[in-house]
Amino acid sequence: MYTKPPYTIDEQIEQLKQRGLLIDPKDDIVTILSNISYYRLAGYWWPMQSDKDKHIFKSGSKFSDVMALYIFDRELRILLFDVIEKIEISLRTKLVYYLSHEFDPWWFQNTALFTNVKELVQTLATLEEEIDRSKDTFIKEHKKKYKDDLRFPPAWKSLELTSFGGLSKLYGNLRPDIKSKDKIAADFGTVNHTFLPSWLQSITQIRNHCAHHSRLWNRNLPGKPKLLPKPPNAWIKDVPKENEYHMIYVHLCCMKYLLNTIQPRNNFSGQIRSLVDRFASNVDPKALGLKPEWQSEPLWQDSL
Question: Residue 304's pLDDT band (boundaries 50, 70, 90)?
Answer without folding.
Answer: low
